[in-house]
Amino acid sequence: MVETKQKCTVTALAPSVTHANSIRETVSPTTSSMRVGDAELGRFDPAATLIRIHLVMAITGIGRATVYKLMSQPESGFPQSVKLTDSNARGAPVAWVLSEVLSWTRARIAARDEAAA
Fold it and tell me: Can you give the pTM of this predicted structure?
């Protein structure tokens, strides 16, 4: 059996960034693992894997401002970020738990399917 892989390149530009940050994803239909850059996310425990904003945006399909807006609305159910340092400064590094982001995405799909039924 030949395993086929689909490749998708997502490029995100922030207003203050002068170059493109590329996130390369390869999704394998047989193993359901995701490859981003040099890391294959299927090899890590999703409950203990932290991902940064660009990957959150690539997985959910929403923009940075919407991510933070949804985080501020408890009724949205969007996962909260995890502080990576003890800094309280604006712009301090944060990440999201991969399994929580995937669960939120699956919940949105399920809500769509329930509304269609």
Answer: 0.66
